Structure prediction request, 91 residues.
Amino acid sequence: MGTFHQNKGELHGITVIVDTTGPEIFVGRCDDMDDRGIFLHDVDLHRDGEGGRSKDDYVKRASRFGVFKKYDHLMIPRERIASVRRLGEIA
Prediction:
């Protein structure tokens, strides 16, 4: 059914995984996405290899147990975004 906020994208309010072209991957609640990038709330950040986990390992764990917020809000610039997926789509 979705949320009813004008001028917000289809991912508004959805927890998403934002993989970057670098070693970072983010999980947070999407506020909006535009030409500048994606704006997230309640964001966790993982760097590939941190804690002995790859990005993929981190995503699998996040999909099972959730994440701990490290940032209230973050804007990830479009040029750093490799992909955006819904966390709920991860099996």
Summary: The two ends are 22 Å apart (CA to CA). The mean pLDDT is 92.
